[in-house]
Design a protein that fits this description.
The protein is 37% helix and 17% strand. By secondary structure, it is of the alpha+beta class. Among the domains are: 1-173, Secreted effector protein pipB2 fold, CATH 3.30.2450; 358-490, no CATH class. It binds zinc ion.
């Protein structure tokens, strides 16, 4: 049974119907929503299709999933656009580097009897980026329109409304990784989806409404994780959390139905809070369990290549479940999650080629940085990309300036690829700080000024010498003291 109305192959019925081939891409537009449906109009021909928005299982979820799959090169992929009396499918199939073949097939109500005369099949070729740009823009314009506000969707908010439709055309065209089977690529896609469906651009309009929307998204995430599991395993995926989502949604409905106050509102509110958090917690655990059980079935390990959303490439140096040590093509070495970068979702796609890593060719700072990462020296897995010494903060939200070289770590956390790191390194090697001596100090905060004093620099040098010694005899229970503690002692503050 397919959870989603998306299939990663061509339909068996497809060949039955003769195709009208358009010489150039047709105009595409959306009209509505009106009376519960949206019309997708293919301009310049007699063909049109209806996309029905229901408030229980929005077909927009399927459209979003299909659009993402096409953007990430997972064709052939077909989505069923309409769930009413007839079936309308849209199929995308890559035919050349960066060219898509698109086909729209409208089947009669009982297409098992395949009456070729009543079916319509129309197709065209289009540059991949072109299609994704106008397709994404079209949906984005519709979904940010006034029809999709709370008054229209107050009962069951459309969870796909806030997805980044406009970014579809920015996904890079990537070659396939030959070590990955199609089923493995599809599974990986579903796992990425499971970790990326989060509310965006959304302003809470009452707790019940907000929770209903989050529950819709987390349900979709869980279904995506289960779909990934089914690509790789014959047994059934765990699905205990679905029941908790159902139960929490029932409480949402009771809150919405409680206009006359027949139930005590505060009591009901507390019940909703409990049911909601239990459902979210259990679902996140279940998704993590599903992915953990499936990761060993994917060809991921030292030497595998991945690309990110900006088409930057990395090679895995070490993979420990969902925790990866990556070497990027801009020579950056980072510890990252398989699906996250500093707890923010990150897209990674398996590719055939990537940077060549040679441990012996690393400069002394990178060699040190890699050792600290391998030895888990930093509690938050952040080692300063400029000086190569570990950040000892307990929480990545607290990471501010590297206490050795003054680099602004808070800019680096969540976005490793900063220009200028090589220049900062030169400054650090020459002056011991990322800022050159002539930098106007009035622009700096109080602590940053302290870091540039002679006395502080002396303490930082002592700490770096201790860390160098620690690397020779690493002891996880005895790490050198932070520089700020040494400073406070010097000042008589501690
Ligand atoms: Zn540093």
């Amino acid at each position: 049974m397919d959870t989603f109305n998306v299939r990663f192959d061509t339909l068996p019925e497809w060949a039955t119907f003769s195709e009208r081939r358009l010489a150039s891409p047709p105009g595409l537009s959306l009209v509505g929503p009106e009376a519960g449906q949206i019309n997708l109009v293919i301009a310049g021909s007699a063909v049109s299709a209806l996309v029905t928005l229901s408030d229980v299982h929005p077909p927009l979820a399927d459209v979003w999933l299909w659009s993402l799959a096409v953007a990430w090169g997972l064709g052939p992929a077909a989505v069923r656009l309409d769930g009413r009396s007839e079936a309308v499918y849209l199929l995308a199939h890559p035919v050349a580097q960066d060219v898509l073949s698109l086909e729209l097939l409208r089947l009669p109500a009982h297409h098992a009897s395949s009456d070729p005369l009543s079916a319509q099949r129309v197709g065209w070729l289009e540059p991949r980026t072109n299609f994704l740009r106008r397709w994404g823009r079209m949906w984005c314009n519709l979904l940010t329109g006034p029809f999709f506000d709370r008054r229209q969707w107050g009962i069951d908010p459309e969870p796909m409304r806030g997805m980044p439709w406009n970014e579809l055309g920015d996904a890079p065209a990537l070659e396939e990784a030959p070590t990955w089977s199609r089923a493995q690529r599809i599974a990986w896609f579903y796992f990425l989806v499971a970790y990326h469906l989060r509310s965006r651009n959304h302003f809470p309009e009452g707790p019940a409404y907000w929770r209903q929307r989050e529950l819709s998204l987390i349900r979709f995430s869980l279904l995506a994780a289960q779909a990934g599991w089914r690509q790789l395993r014959a047994d059934a995926p765990p699905e205990k959390a679905l029941q908790l989502i159902d139960e929490a949604e029932q409480v949402v409905r009771r809150v919405q139905a409680n206009i006359d106050g027949s139930e005590e509102p505060n009591q009901l509110e507390r019940e909703l809070g409990r049911a909601y958090f239990e459902a979210i917690r259990a679902t996140l655990h279940e998704i993590a369990d599903i992915v953990a059980a499936c990761l060993p079935l994917l060809p991921i390990g030292p030497g595998s290549f991945f690309a990110d959303k900006q088409a930057r490439r990395a090679v895995i140096l070490r993979a420990d479940g969902r925790e990866w040590l990556l070497y990027w093509d801009d020579r950056l070495i980072r510890k990252e999650g398989a699906f996250h970068l500093d707890r923010l979702p990150a897209w990674r796609w398996p590719v055939a080629t990537g940077p060549c890593f040679d441990r012996n060719a690393l400069d002394p700072i990178d060699a040190r940085l890699l050792r600290f990462l391998e030895l888990n020296a930093s509690p938050i897995d952040v080692v300063c990309p400029v000086c190569g010494y570990p950040c000892m903060d307990d929480d990545w939200m607290e990471a501010e300036y590297c206490e050795f070289c003054g680099f602004a770590l808070y800019k680096y956390v969540g976005n490793g690829h900063l220009p200028g790191i090589r220049q900062y390194r030169k400054n650090f090697l020459r002056w011991g700080d990322v800022l050159p001596p002539g930098f106007p100090r009035r622009k700096l905060g109080r602590w940053r000024k302290v870091m540039l004093t002679k006395a502080y620099r002396q303490l930082a040098r002592e700490a770096m010498i201790e860390w160098d010694a620690w690397l020779k005899h690493p002891d996880p229970d005895h790490k050198p003291e932070e520089v700020w503690r040494r400073w406070n002692r010097l000042q008589g503050l501690a």
